[in-house]
Amino acid sequence: MADIILSDTYNELLNEVQSLQKTCPLSADNVVLLAVVKQQPDDKIIALLEAGHRYFAENRIEEARCRWPDFRITYPNIELHHIGALQSGKVREAVGLYDVIETLDRHSLLHAVQKEAQRIGKVQRCYVQVNIGEELQKSGVLPQQLESFMIQAHAASHIIVEGLMCIPPEGKAPAPYFALMRNWQRQYKLPALSMGMSGDYATAIRFGATHIRLGTRLLGERS
Ligand SMILES: *Cc1c(COP(=O)(O)O)cnc(C)c1O
Questions:
Q1: Is residue 190 predicted with pLDDT exceeding 60?
Q2: How many angstroms does the Cα of residue 102 sit away from the middle of ligand 1?
Q3: What does the alpha-carbon distance between residue 217 and residue 73 come to, in Å, rounded to a whole number?
Q4: Ligand 1 mutation pick, 59, 131, 197, 222, max ligand atoms within 8 A of CB
């Protein structure tokens, strides 16, 4: 029963994303729906995997490590993104576990990821997280430091920066922030732009998001 409701919601969302893509002139050609599965039970994840979905995001390593190595064996071609703050001490495990780290947000993390990726001979796909609202409590590279950070990131041999990611300030209209993000994405010629959550994904698509991160809208309330 839960599976049926979930697959209805999933198909509904895919249709909505597709029609937004078609009607909005600034939207990306292929918007990826990332299922944010933090604090969600395994059976919902399995229902999505069975429906053919392959794009997922987690925000805590402790949760991710328990399920994805096994899911990957059963379901090929999963793409797993990390969207939470990443402590430098957990970089070794993160580089082993994730296809994309979306939260590259400081120089020390950049160096730690580079070092570990080089050690195991992997090129780690990353997005740079931008602290778009310049909020003290949020992580991310400040807009005025983005350029120098991008230069450093491009110089790292075992990191490929594929995109930018942001979480706009709560309680403010997100559109102006999304528009700034899109400008930087174009300026740096990056393929990916991860923005938009359950409350603002339609606006994010209108402003060119390539990856929307949906938790509650897709999977219901977290435990
Ligand atoms: C939890 C989380 C989401 C999903 O949030 P919902 O509002 O449940 O869609 C998206 N992005 C990040 C970074 C998150 O931590």
A1: yes
A2: 13
A3: 28
A4: 197
- Residue-wise pLDDT for 30-66, tens only, equals 999 999 999 999 999 999 999 999 999 999 999 999 9
**Per-residue b/e over 176-206, b at no fewer than 16 CB within 10 Å?**
ebbebbbebbeebebebbbbbbeebbebbbb
- pLDDT for residue 165: 98
Residue with tokens 């400081």: 106
Could you read off the pLDDT of 111-154 as tens digits, one per residue? 999 999 999 999 999 999 999 999 999 999 999 999 999 999 99
Q: Whose CA is nearest to atom 11 of ligand 1?
A: 213
- Report which residue type is found at 112: A
Specify the residue with its C-alpha closest to ligand 1, atom 6: 215
